[in-house]
Design goal:
By secondary structure, the chain is mainly alpha-helical. The protein is 47% helix and 6% strand. The strands form three sheets. A two-stranded parallel ribbon has the order 1-2. Helix 10 (143-158) crosses helix 13 (218-226) and helix 11 (174-181) packs across helix 12. It starts with a helix and ends in a 5-residue tail after the last strand.
Length: 243
Amino acid sequence: MEYDPRADSQKSGSVRLGQVGRFNGAYDKLQLSRLVTGGVFDSSNPLLQTLSISVRNGGLLWHWLHTGSDTAGDITFDSSGLASTIDYFEDWPASLMQELETAASNADQTLLKDFNKTAFQHIFGDILITSRWLPVSDLSQNFVLATVIEFLSSLVDSHPKSTRANVADLLLTVPEAAAVLSTTQEQVYRLYQEGYLELAFKPQLHQKLAAHKPAFYLRQVVELRQTRMQSDSGLANVYLPVR
């Protein structure tokens, strides 16, 4: 069953789509109402193209988190917030690609350790985690995650493995690896246990790898995805059969 952010908002009030008025002369109140109720738009904007209210709400929430908005209290999308979000997606995927390319280009300037000892989040922030706020792993619907994976695949292809570590050798946590592989965290642990994913450090005996610890090389995770050894279970890619 597909997750619907509206259900949670009704229970906790954590996500509200505020009453919208008129902004920038581009969308009137009726059009904005259609946006948040699943109306059909003739647009190349991915937020408007999708007919899934869950995906639209996920896209709104992703942009809110991505732009660093304060989430300590209730999240309210008012007219200006909706305007900013729609404008951002009008130039999709160039808007996000440019941000990621800039972060990669400036990576050397922010390094404290070698790339192969540096967390992915240190360079790119929590982009992989927030991209899963769109409540589907199917890349044909999760346009944010699809764009991020496209960028990372290109990044790995353009930075071959060499004697000196580079930006493609950054370290991913278990949830980040799961996002790249469009799968579950359980599958990531299985892939590690079966030898398909290599740890960047020697694990402690009889202790489970902590999910938050940067552990897997970005290069290896992306290349594993590119081998297409996975099958689609409908909810997430499955790389190894369930025991």
